[in-house]
Write a structure and sequence with these properties.
The structure is a homodimer of 350-residue chains. Chain A is an alpha/beta fold and 350 residues long. In chain A, 40% of the residues lie in helices and 16% in strands.
Chain lengths: 350, 350
């Protein structure tokens, strides 16, 4: 049988039964790219692998959790799904909602979200309602609605999201024939760090790997609640996908760090952009700026990484989601030239 | 061994040897999505499968050919690669050029290309040179340069591109355990239609499939040179990725049509946009408008498709490449609402 999404592939490890309808866009199964030039450029004496989850159907890792959350919503007879989100979660929810034939509601804070960020959700046909107030206020409304009506919350409070996301670890173990030594992951709501750790532990317990990685979560310096040990009221970072002042999975991320003997650290916006540019120009991989925080963290901590080890950096989202940043920080510029072969050769410098 | 791109997987069927350096971003291996709701909505009594090549690393099917073209350029000792392109080809060339450590030159006609279309190539660090004159003029310069210098042309005249692209057919045969009955594909430069047909024939000859599909190429009505049998001087369609007035693989596409007892037809921009919206809202699949021409063609010709047959529609590019169109043609709109639970419920209509 051909690859038909992560529920069908990892059925034995997920909370599904024969009765669960499988709502899938064939998510997962994303590239693991060995980054030899990157390693050379930063002078690393270890192996770096980029797990490019931006190749998922809606362009982010959220699809891993959403396939399960929406399949379970459908199984439970839910009439609709709902989330408060301004980015990747809304896109993923809207796509799987459409595939399932479930109405998808997205509540966003009025005036705080550029329509371009919602273009995917609008294209998939989600009902997007913009409400005055903060993001937290919008999220409160979502929770109230789910208490009263048969509508399933698909924000990351939904544990099925975490269950689906843990399959990223399964794929890495299968690719490397073992777990890596270090696993770097961007930390916003922190659910992905918790999910990966859960996945690594489960396959380790089943003897599918011989070791467990150190889990290293990376926040943005302007929004590093876990690093600073306090809620950040006014987050300030261009890494919008990890701009979360009070992470939902805070405690689970700390647990992953402690159990794995790992770390949670932070990097500046400059370090994020530098990594964002470096992976594009040296590896041909175009990820969202937020995604590059994992690589920026790895570069920051490279002297603490043991020689010869295998290091994963998760790239959570596709760079195409934010072409404004690409134009702003691009590695090259367009050069104008008269229509004359000699002039062109001069510009080409060959 | 884990999936490491289409050269490693299909080595026996591609013009590579042990000496060929493999430049890969783990392209290929893209989702084949069964579109049951779409079939129901259009009243089809056949099975529809969407081959979503927008999940490739740079967001289009071009990566399939580029991995081979750039690997062969590297093997031949070429110092750089070059193309004339305003879209998906430039993005793919720049990414694989970066990965290979080869300089990538992109020649574009000055004033005719929006910088946003080039954001990927700029991010990957390509040298983009904008030259006065038409696209054809730019392409002439590219060919002149390749005659004089050890620089490899990676436009679709490069036959390695076609060789790489044929692997899409291999993947479909492996997924369905046979070839489909019909294969719909957007036709711009027409190389992809020729490539798929080559792939289907090769696996058929090796007894890996029991049949061959009818190949059905779809052009845009405002730019249908093959349908009309004449070069189109001033193409007029919003499907930019297939806006090619004088296709490079014209004759190969006609051959694929004739040999397969297929067809080459065209659809209007309205039909393209309608299909573009329909696959997003019914299947959760967000493709470029140009990609949706394959689905629009299938809808146009649905009464000629035999009951019970299996039909492929190739979706060549990711919808994220063109978020302007998504906002313009979206299936829903953002609704404003006061911050009051009853008002929100009223807007939700539950």
């Amino acid at each position: 049988m051909y690859y038909q999404g992560l529920i069908n592939k990892y059925r034995a490890f997920l909370p599904v039964s024969d009765k669960t309808p499988v709502i899938t866009l064939n998510e997962g199964n994303t590239p693991l790219i060995k980054a030899e030039k990157l390693a050379e450029k930063i002078g690393a004496d270890f192996e770096i692998y980029l797990k490019f989850d931006g190749c998922n159907p809606t362009g982010s890792f959220k699809d891993r959790g959403m396939t399960l959350a929406v399949s379970k919503a459908k199984e439970s007879g839910s009439g609709a799904i709902i989330c408060a989100s301004t980015g990747n979660t809304s896109a993923s929810a809207a796509a799987y909602g459409a595939k399932a034939g479930l109405k998808t509601f997205v509540i966003v804070p009025d005036g705080l979200v550029a329509p371009s960020k919602l273009s995917q959700a609008l294209m998939y046909g989600a009902e997007i309602i913009s409400v005055q107030g903060s993001f937290d206020r919008a999220f409160d409304f979502v929770k109230q609605i789910c208490e009263k009506y048969p509508i399933t919350l698909v924000n990351s409070l939904n544990q099925n999201r975490i269950e689906g996301q843990k399959t990223g670890a399964f794929e890495i173990i299968e690719a490397l024939d073992d777990a890596p030594d270090y696993h770097f992951v961007p930390v916003g709501n922190a659910g992905n760090m918790a999910a990966y750790w859960k996945g690594y532990k489960e396959f380790f317990d089943l003897n599918k790997s011989k070791k467990l990685p150190e889990m290293i979560g990376i926040q943005a310096k302007g929004c590093a609640p876990i690093v600073e040990g306090r809620i950040i009221e006014n987050p300030d970072t261009l890494a919008t996908a990890i701009r979360v002042g009070n992470p939902a999975s805070w405690q689970s991320a700390l647990k992953a760090k402690d159990e794995s003997n790992g770390a949670i650290d932070c990097v500046s916006d400059e370090e994020i952009i530098s990594a964002y540019k470096l992976i594009a120009s040296s590896e041909g991989v175009f990820a969202e700026p937020s995604s590059a925080s994992s690589v920026a963290g790895m570069i920051k901590l490279k002297n603490q990484i043991k020689s010869g080890s295998k290091v994963i950096c998760v790239l959570t989202g596709n760079g195409l989601k934010d072409s404004d940043s690409a134009l702003k920080f691009a590695n090259s510029k367009i050069k104008k030239c008269p229509a004359n072969i000699d002039e062109i050769l001069k510009v080409m410098d060959i």
